[in-house]
Amino acid sequence: MRQRDAKVCADRAMQGDVRVFVAGSTGVLGRRIVAGLVTRGHEVVGLARSAENSHLITSLGAEPRQGDLFDPETLVRAARGADVIIRAATSIPRSLRLSAKDWATNDRIRRDGTRSLTECAGRIGAKLYLQEGIVWVAQPEDGSPFDEDARVRPRLWFASAAEAESIAREAGGRLGFEVATLRCGSFYCADSAQTRLLGERLVRRRLPLIGEGEAVWSNIHVDDAAAAFVTAAEAGRGGLWHVVDDHAARMADFFRTLAALLKVPPPRAVPPWVASLFIGRRTVQFLTASTRTSNAKIRRDLGWSPRYPSHQEGLRQVVDAWRSEGFPRDRRK
Question: Is beta strand 209-210 parallel, antiparallel or unpaired with respect to 128-134?
Answer without folding.
Answer: unpaired
